[in-house]
Recover the amino acids of this structure.
């Protein structure tokens, strides 16, 4: 299947297309990313200096509550994720329904055609930079900062920006799944920051969704690898990308599974720790606010 084949596919029937979506030009953003994606290494370096330097700075100082700012931050991210999900999910559903699994994994139909999905994919990639700000709340509120949090933020940023330069076809899966989980997760934390008390089981469901996301992410990469190795059809994803993505998703799965076990299945001691952290407020591993931090799944 060549480029002309996947440029001729039909598009989802969007009820409305905004002007800024209609004016979106894929090639311009791809050229920009190809010229600038390596800057994210500098951003990650600055991020590491700020968060660990910030922890040292806050060690002898009282914590900040920041509940109002945190409520606004989570509300904005929840709204962004909900909109992103509603604008990208139709393309994935349309492709699966009309063209099947192979097309959804290997053929980037949004190239130069689906400007709606393309625009929100671009927004998704860019959003990984400001999302580093999640960690600021952990540092200023003097909450525990564990490896999974900053490791996740850094690797998601690096992988997302790199993948955009290749127009990786399987990215449609990753983008839709991430938007979906974030829609629920940030809404939950916005309510918590506003002092509402959603049922605790919701956080467990969110962590289960995160684990499911990791499993699906690994499966997508395995399928892409099989398509490439068969040599029977074109698959628009590089072997390097598959290796990086598979390692990333598998590492997330191991770390989130470990967290899930400690938070929910580790016995009385884990249960007490989970309840204590849950009572303290905002977290980002979506489970029981077990470590009082913000963790997102990609």
């Amino acid at each position: 299947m060549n480029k002309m084949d996947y440029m001729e596919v039909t598009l989802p029937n969007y009820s409305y297309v905004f002007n800024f979506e209609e004016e979106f030009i894929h090639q311009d953003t791809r050229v920009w990313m190809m010229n600038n994606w390596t800057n994210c290494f500098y951003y990650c370096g600055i991020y590491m200096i700020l968060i660990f330097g910030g922890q040292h700075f806050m060690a002898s100082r009282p914590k900040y509550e920041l509940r109002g700012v945190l409520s606004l931050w989570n509300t904005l991210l929840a709204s962004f994720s909900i909109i992103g999900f509603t604008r990208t999910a139709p393309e994935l559903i349309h492709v699966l329904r009309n063209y099947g699994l192979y097309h959804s994994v290997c053929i980037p139909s949004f190239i130069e055609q689906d400007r709606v999905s393309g625009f929100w994919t671009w927004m998704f990639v860019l959003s990984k930079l400001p999302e580093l700000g999640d960690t600021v709340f952990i540092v200023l509120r003097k909450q525990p900062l564990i490896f999974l949090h900053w490791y996740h933020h850094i690797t998601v940023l690096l992988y997302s920006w790199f993948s955009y330069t290749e127009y990786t076809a399987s990215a449609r899966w990753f983008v839709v799944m991430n938007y979906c989980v974030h829609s629920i997760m940030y809404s939950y934390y916005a309510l918590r920051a506003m002092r509402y008390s959603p049922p605790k089981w919701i956080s467990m469901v969110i962590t289960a969704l995160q684990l499911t996301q990791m499993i699906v992410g690994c499966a997508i990469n395995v399928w892409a690898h099989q398509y490439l190795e068969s040599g029977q059809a074109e698959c628009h994803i590089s072997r390097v990308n598959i290796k990086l993505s598979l390692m990333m998703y598998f590492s997330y799965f191991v770390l989130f599974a470990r967290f899930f076990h400690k938070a929910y299945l580790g016995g009385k001691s884990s249960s007490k720790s989970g309840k204590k952290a849950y009572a303290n407020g905002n977290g980002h591993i979506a489970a029981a606010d077990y470590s009082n931090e913000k963790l997102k799944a990609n």
Residues 3-280 form one domain.
